[in-house]
Fold this protein.
Amino acid sequence: MKEKEKRKIFGRLQRTPKWKKEEFTEIEYEPTSVKELMTEMKDISELIIDLAYSAVLFDSEDIAEEVKYLDVRMDKLNYDIRMMAMMAARTKEDAEQLAGILQVAEAAETISNAAGDIAKLLSLKEKTRPIIPNILKKADESLFRVKVSVKSEACNQEIGQLKVESETGMRIIAIRRGECWIYNPQSDTTIKADDWLIVRGTDEGYNDLDKFLQGKLKVLE
Amino acid sequence: MKEKTSEEIVLEIKDKSELMVDLAYSSILYDNKTIAQEVYDLEDAVDLLYQLLQKKSLEDVQNKKHSINDALTLLRIANAGEQIADAAQEIADVELRDVELHPILKMSIREADIVFTKVQVNPNSILCDKTLGELKLSSETGMVVIAMRHKNKWLYGPTKKTKIDPEDILFAKGPEDGEKHLIELAHAISDEI
């Protein structure tokens, strides 16, 4: 059940930004467990920072839209988790412990707001952007964009089977396929020829992955 | 020491704030007040950096090193980093309170896409007496070491030059299959990095 829910938001191919629709949907009460809500909020809080920097770094309106969508989604999750927590509290001890959960949830939301602010830098009219790539290039772990060649062994393979992250340390945060995107691909997401991957990790890991995706390296080790 | 440029300060705020989020989540997962305390200390450091940057970027504009727009962009990114650092502190604050953590908190951090792990290095492990740079742990196993405990000393955000000693405790984050690999290496079950 949990996996299904998750796939609805992450790891699917999508075309149009959906955040506008989401923002104006009336918030309805749907019973979801506090644990599921908290797990999703934690996942978004980690993904959204990388996406926000990628949007600015690669000058991508699409990724910026996704950041906005996730930011709005986070608002809804935060609202849901508050409702669920209130319904779960029976005693003073319950309330004390649940207050802790709500504080973490609130922090996750603050992170997504901060990411939203970063993505907004893209919509500024002033020409200042070159300064950002210069800074981000020097970070411990940076963001890269890499294209999958038809010759690569990665084509038509699942990310989980390729063990991309455990073999290279590179975390795939998004895939662009034609005009569509897959954000936060899951281990059962398939890589196809001509996909553009946005990845995060070290320079060494990037070199290995780049060779593999260009077909110069047959196996990831 | 050479004075830091505005760009370097922004980068430091970015790296520190991301490390803080990782540390904050792992402090809850391992119910560890020392790590949570470190998040508090880092938050003070980020505050100081942000103040320094404000002054520095005004000077840059005055000295015509940066245009007003460039300086604004730097300040905006740093401001977002500062907010992220504040959020990390809020998370650590939950750990530092004298209330037992709700089990759901640990479970949700454990089940997320990126997992945190804690492992002690066996004296026979291949990891001993090597630096993180030599081992290329992050590019070989996918696990990034975010903190280390050496006897009673703690080290946060280790660099490539950091050496692993026997009995050190590593705190790392990464994918689930990377976690298994790291544990096998540290427990001297496997020598293949």
User: Anything to note?
Assistant: The helical segments of chain B are 6-29, 33-62, 68-96, 103-110, 132-135, 137-141, 176-186. Chain B has two domains: 6-105, 113-186.
